[in-house]
Structure to design on (366 residues):
């Protein structure tokens, strides 16, 4: 890699580096303010760092999927997503979302929820953990539909793991096949969920309803996107390719965030430390997304997108399995990152074999 290319790549992460410095400094200050010791300050600093790394590792596939959608959006809507969208992702999902769960679950006001997070973090964490099942069911179902919709695509021409993807692509001619698959999986998992003898069927019923809400949310977002896409024929060029994709990406980002937000409580019960750590990670996701779009990385590495969607499917299954047993978040993050790494390696091998002089690669959809 030449020095100019390296500088160009690093420049995409300028704001992420700035936010990292500010966030870690704020985390260290919180640690000092709470404990008054160097050890306490170092502990909170370390937790913020681990949370940021956890968020980045869980969100490699998120950045790739974002870039895939963004490349078809107009510059105006790209910029709106990368400014408004990141504010929603950082403040909405990392701060407002956990508070909203406590507000609904505990039946208290938003101000009381903030006071609870600051004064009684153990109780706050307990409420969040109790809400894990419906969150996992909703988010897992939405992400599963995202992943399956990519592979159940009759127009998909390029396949990474051919013996699987060719069959899924051919099966896409059967309308609703991915929905049927997800519904069967929902019923299967609901039958495996252990119930409290005092309240039989409550847990399984909660899982089914939450999963159905996730499925309906995906379908509604798809319908809205389709209606907006159809109406674009009568819109000015500057307004095309935007709102439908924007809504889709926001819901997708929210689904990706569920796992990280819930998992963060395994490391700390302090909402503000969680917000700092995950917020830092979200900034790197934003930077990676911009780099992937502007440098055309998805077109250059033809299997990278495939790896991301396989990672999404695995994450969705893990979220389902987590309703039965605990799976450490590090396994989730490393699993997705490993798949994307293998996809990148396969893409590089393909390019060396078929485009030795740097010829333009074909996009994943032909």
């Amino acid at each position: 890699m030449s020095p100019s290319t390296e500088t160009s790549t690093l420049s995409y992460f300028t704001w992420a580096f700035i936010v990292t410095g500010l966030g870690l400094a704020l985390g260290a200050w919180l640690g000092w303010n709470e404990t008054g010791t160097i050890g306490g300050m170092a502990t909170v600093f370390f937790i913020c760092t681990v949370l940021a790394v956890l968020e980045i590792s869980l969100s490699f596939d998120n950045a790739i999927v974002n870039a895939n959608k963004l490349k078809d959006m107009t510059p105006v809507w790209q910029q709106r997503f990368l400014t408004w969208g990141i504010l929603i992702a950082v403040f909405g999902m990392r701060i407002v979302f956990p508070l909203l769960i406590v507000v609904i679950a505990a039946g208290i006001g938003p101000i009381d929820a903030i006071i609870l997070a600051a004064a009684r973090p153990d109780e706050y964490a307990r409420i969040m953990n109790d809400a894990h099942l419906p969150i996992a069911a909703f988010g897992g179902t939405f992400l599963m539909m995202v992943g399956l919709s990519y592979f159940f695509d009759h127009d998909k021409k390029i396949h990474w793991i051919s013996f699987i993807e060719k069959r899924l692509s051919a099966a896409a001619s059967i309308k609703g096949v991915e929905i049927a698959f997800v519904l069967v999986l929902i019923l299967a998992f609901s039958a495996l969920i252990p119930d409290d003898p005092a309240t039989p069927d409550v847990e399984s019923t909660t899982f089914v309803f939450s999963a159905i809400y996730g499925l309906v949310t995906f379908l509604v977002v798809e319908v809205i996107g389709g209606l907006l896409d159809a109406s674009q024929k009568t819109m000015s060029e500057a307004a095309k390719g935007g709102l439908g994709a924007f809504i889709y990406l926001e819901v997708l980002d929210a689904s990706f965030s569920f796992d990280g937000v819930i998992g963060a409580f395994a490391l700390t019960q302090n909402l503000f430390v969680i917000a700092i750590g995950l917020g830092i990670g979200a900034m790197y996701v934003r930077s990676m997304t911009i780099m992937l779009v502007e440098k055309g990385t998805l077109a250059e590495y033809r299997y990278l997108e495939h790896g991301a969607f396989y990672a999404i499917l695995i994450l969705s299954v893990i979220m389902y399995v987590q309703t039965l047993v605990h799976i450490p978040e590090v396994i989730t993050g490393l699993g997705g990152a490993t798949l994307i790494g293998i996809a990148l390696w396969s893409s590089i091998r393909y390019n060396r074999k078929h485009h030795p002089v740097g010829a333009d690669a074909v996009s994943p959809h032909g």
The longest helix spans residues 75-106. Residues 3-354 form one domain. DSSP finds 16 helices and no strands in the chain. The chain has a mean pLDDT of 78.
